[in-house]
Amino acid sequence: MTDLIDMGERAVRAGYTLQKASPDEKNNVLLNAAELLCLRQTDILAANEEDIKRAEANGMHAGMIDRLMLTSARIDAMSEGLRQIAALPDCIGETMESFERPNGLLIEKRRVPIGVIGIIYESRPNVTADAFGLCFKTGNAVILKGGSDAICSNIAIVRVLREAASGITEDAVQLIEDTDRAVTAEFMKLNKYVSVLIPRGGAGLIRSVIENSTIPVIETGTGNCHVYVDRDADLDMAVRIILNAKTQRIGVCNACESLVIHSAVSERLLPRLADALSIHKVELRGDERVKEVLKDECVAAAEEDYGREYLDYILSLKTVDSVEEAIEHINKYNTGHSDCIVTENKETAEKFLNEIDAACVYVNASTRFTDGFEFGFGAEIGISTQKLHARGPMGLKELTSYKYTIRGNGQIRG
Fold this sequence. Notes:
By secondary structure, the chain is α/β, with parallel strands linked by helices. Helices cover 41% and strands 19% of the residues.
């Protein structure tokens, strides 16, 4: 079995080494890693092909295979993410606030690395490079535990990243290669060495980590994302947004899974939308009022459909008579990830923005923009759906803590 204690000890030492690295030293490693990923693309794609073949042989769902698959374009995007991270300002050591006490003590609040970050994730080998880049830039060592389905891809990518990091410390990134679930359970108890654990994957993985980890957890949630088409919506815009949010990539957490439609526009919108979605063979599951309009183009939705993250060409549809009803429905069934309203009514838009309980709330834009790269963070460590410490796409500052430094001239407490 993998010697996790040894990995933890090496990660702690690597973290202290990273804290002493200058911004230029860290950026040079990131740029080198970006270049090496492109140079070693053939090896990485060959390793990924092994994972894909195994996944297909095991009958993996198409949406999950999409998450697992690497292409030249996706590797280029991984490299570009590392370059963008290198180009971002280094926030480590910045003074967040400072003040002087009446007794003359000078107190500063400074941003510092968290220490060692553990990440448990499924499929998505691009997460491997994103996690390394963000953690390295913020002076954190990272221990990665990818899923067995992506093990060949992850080994190939981490080999490149460790080579790039070797000028400072290759143990800035370590991969647990043992795919035994017992190793994952042991990793979740490594609180002596790992400061925070971030799970990325399906609801089952996230729930398992939350329930079993002795390490503090930042919850990255599943994405039951909604688009609400208001009575005052531009219907051409609505069709474009829904089509993009649902079909651009089905296997991602920011894809639209649920559509809410105001009854005033349903008869005009639904036939056009059904035609557009039929090109992608999207199955529609609607309530009775949706079925009255679409007839055989729609099947009846069950209650559980409104709370599901399909990761498939399936969309649930709900009819409402007001924005208040839409907000109530979305807050009941969403996962706190990303929700959108399509409307030309500014007052309605503001009400939606203020009252929807989600990490990212959109007006007239696709939910697919919930992404660290799209937000200008270079990449992301995940989309946090919790409310403590971090929420939404987690970039550099979400991977930091702070400490107080206090300067005196002999003060003692009376």
